[in-house]
Specification:
By secondary structure, this protein is mainly alpha-helical. It has four helices and no strands.
Length: 121
């Protein structure tokens, strides 16, 4: 396989420790919609054990996926869009990754806006 310089490589000096990145992701999980989901689960008749188990399963699946992507990114020093070009091609990676990020961002800000809007009468 031919190695090319894409200009996106992260040098060893620019890389962050796993603890600093873990705190960013942990902070992202502490938000009003996540707390509201916990309230809905408890009012829906689930016991504390069932709520805890559902949270572990849901976050566990997401974390397993993020760990796999993170390990590959740490080994190569490349962002996801550049790594996806091997499987999707340059144009495919650009559009597919951009579409995934756009849907996630629009969905996230939509949930945040709906949560904020529901507070006001």
């Amino acid at each position: 396989m031919k190695e090319t310089n894409t200009g996106f490589e992260i040098t060893a000096e620019q890389r962050q420790s796993w603890q600093s990145i873990a705190f960013v992701w942990a902070g992202g999980m502490i938000c009003v919609p996540c707390l509201m989901v916990g309230g809905v689960l408890s009012q829906g008749g689930l016991s504390l054990t069932q709520i805890f188990l559902s949270i572990l399963i849901g976050y566990g699946m997401i974390c397993a996926y993020m760990i796999c992507i993170g390990m590959q990114a740490c080994d190569t020093g490349l962002p996801v869009a550049v790594m996806a070009s091997g499987a999707l091609g340059n144009k495919g990676a650009r559009y597919v990754i951009s579409l995934i990020i756009a849907i996630a961002c629009v969905g996230w800000f939509g949930i945040q806006s709906a949560t904020c809007g529901s507070v006001f009468p």
